[in-house]
Amino acid sequence: MGALLALASAVCYGIADVTGGLLSRRAHFALVALAGQGGGLVLTLLAAPVFSAARPVLSLALSPDTAWGALSGVGTGVGMVHLYRGVSRGAMSVVVPVSAVTGVTLPVVAGVVLLGDRPSAPAWLGILVAVPALWLVSLERSRPGAPVLTGASLDGLIAGAGIALQYLALAQARPSAGIWPVAVGRVTALAVIAAIAVPLLAARRRRAPLRRPPRTPAGASQGASAEAPALLPPRYAAGSAVTGMIAALALVLYLLAAREQLVVIAVVLSSLYPAVPVVLGLTALGERPTRLQAAGLCAAAAATALITAG
Q1: How far apart are CA 35 and CA 232, in angstroms?
Q2: Which of 72, 83, 80 is nearest to 154 (CA)?
């Protein structure tokens, strides 16, 4: 059951990554992340009473589970901002594999060294296969000789570290807390993203003051005036909120999975989300995977089988 919950979490995360990435290319990435966490907060506040036993508000507020949920939200906020910033730069083929591998490697190391997790031999083999599989399946077609963007690589590393913190902290919450730690994490993530977004938006406003742009002569290039994306039109705000709800559902599923099995196993299976965009492209858009992506998909399937068998 735990493995199925973790795989369902990966599917939800994959869908949220696709929609969030597309939205961050059409609107300001920080506002996409902010609206997403707002949608996730609404979903978890509605769902938390269903999954949780009745507890006094004061005891919940003073619970260590609340602190773990808040720490998880710090990771979410940092991770989503840097993930969306990297994707908004058009560097998805760099950011996604770097963040995915970092986001799964750090929790595995921490789980074994700090938490005392001891996966079985087949599970260990599956973990070792899963890490390169995540990298391969995330790679997109790119121009031959295209440079690797240093800024995008850094975005991917920071996003992966945030995702790792999100996973590890959330797994420490006790089952008696239900999914309230996920709701608390959405509040913290909102605060973190707002703290990052405010100076970014202020700097943007200083660079491009609100005034009517000069007329462009007929036949002239429109590139300069179209460089900055719209902040967050209402339809994109709604899409971002729905994306955040799907991502919050992914976290709820991960939390439930981590209570059924080792944290290491839950993290690895939940981190298979980069395969989802590739599978969606194959089934819905009729795309053909590259040889590396096909190898990554096969390796991911083998890793899943090994981990669940172990």
Answers
A1: 9
A2: 83
Q: What is the pLDDT of residues 77-118, one digit of tens each?
A: 999 999 998 888 766 667 777 888 888 888 888 888 877 888
pLDDT tens for residues 2-15? Answer: 889 999 999 999 89
Q: Is the pTM of the predicted complex or chain greater than 0.85? A: no
List, in sequence order, every residue forming a beta bridge with 203; answer none if it has no partner.
none
CA distances from 27 to 102, 196, 203, 231, 247 (A): 26, 16, 16, 5, 19
Vertex 299: Cα angle to 293 and 304 (nearest 5): 125
Tokens describing residue 135:
């990298």
Q: Can you say how many angstroms the Cα of residue 139 is from the centroid of all Cα atoms in its chain?
A: 17
Task: Classify residue 217 by its DSSP letter.
Answer: P
The CA distance from 139 to 278, in Å, is 10
Give the integer Cα–Cα distance in Å for 208 and 194. 20
Contact indicator for 296, 134 with CB cutoff of 8 Å: yes
Contacts of 90 (CB under 8 A, 6+ apart): 25
Q: Which residues face 230 on adjacent strands?
A: 27
